[in-house]
Amino acid sequence: MAWPNDNEPKEWRIGHHVRTKDPVVDKSGDRWKMWYGEGMHWMKKDGELIGWATSNKWRTQLHKIAALVLTFLLPNTAATTFYINDKEGQTSVIINIEFTLKLTYTVHGDSGEAAGSRVLNENDFRPRLVGSWTGYKTVQFENRLYAIDELFLYYTFELDGSPGNVSLARSVYMTPRHTFAGNRSPLENLKFEAVDRLNLGDGEKAYECDKTETMSFKKVSRKADDYDYSVEMETTLFHAQAFSVNGLNFNDPVRCEDMPSTSSGSNSKKVAIIVGSVVGGVVLVAAVVAVVVFVIVRHKKAKIQMSPGLGLDNCK
């Protein structure tokens, strides 16, 4: 791969790979390209520059501090900041994820056959944020299924088509006995449409959450105790909600019709992610304040619903 000359003007380097220690992301041939340079990266779609993001040491530190604060405010929650400037403006959003998965697995080995079926939700997974170098934010859910075998679910937030639109794609990977199997699924392409200059407060209903998809794959262990490992996974519920941090718009969640909720109160491991442009510290502070308000409001609602003095004891 040929790198540009550092003495060349920046305008020339925008259209080429920029010298960097990080890998270069290339999606769908020439359709999507991302380049990283010192303090700046560019994104192109079909040859047109659609976005860029600047970074400096102090702003990066602010982002890390904000993520730590958010993680502290929401226990068992992964939090981070993601910012990108584009031609249309800014957007900031908190995502609340709930899901239910039905897993059926069969293991054939030297010691016989083991099979089982489990129903899991977000409470059964340990959330972690990975892949930040790509410019995407990926939430990794980890669950130990059988012996030392693990299932990883990756929910990746990506720019979708128009500048600033955010979509959510899911990838499923398994590591049976340290071997690798993967399956990328187009299920739940959640599209939070750009509304009012990318303020996503009205985007809460702009997602698909009533899909059910079954995927399966099979992996043979390379260890001495060879066995066949096959898994079928069915998504019975997926719910995601977008909140507008800029407008502090916290509406009640919009749920799929005829779909049960997986929420289990304070024990539920929600994933809060701030996505958006961070200009100075204004949006950053607003995001932290928004999360504090969100936690307080939800806590008060839970107390009201459980209070015997309000005549709500018999509510079903």
Short descriptors:
316 residues, 3 helices, 16 strands, five-stranded antiparallel beta sheet, single chain, six-stranded mixed beta sheet
How confident is the prediction overall: mean pLDDT? 46
Q: Helix/strand/pairing class, anyone?
A: mainly beta
The separation of the N and C termini measures 64 Å
How much helical structure, as a percent, in the residues?
Answer: 10-25%
What's the tally of helices? 3
Number of strands: 16
H/E element string? HEEEEHEEEEEEEEEEEEH
* Number of structural domains: 2
Tell me the strand percentage band. 35-45%
Biggest β-sheet description: 6 strands, mixed
Backbone CA Rg: 22 Å
Uncertain residue segments: 1-57, 75-95, 129-138, 157-168, 176-212, 222-226, 239-281, 302-316
Global geometry = globular
Subcellular location: Cell membrane
Keywords: Glycoprotein, Membrane, Signal, Transmembrane, Transmembrane helix
Main location: membrane
Membrane topology: Single-pass type I membrane protein
SSE arrangement:
Elements: H1 10-14, E1 25-27, E2 32-37, E3 40-45, E4 48-54, H2 57-73, E5 81-82, E6 85-86, E7 92-109, E8 112-121, E9 126-130, E10 137-146, E11 149-159, E12 166-174, E13 181-192, E14 214-220, E15 228-244, E16 274-276, H3 282-306
Parallel strand pairs: 5-16
Antiparallel strand pairs: 1-2, 2-3, 3-4, 4-6, 7-8, 7-15, 7-16, 9-10, 10-11, 11-12, 12-13, 14-15
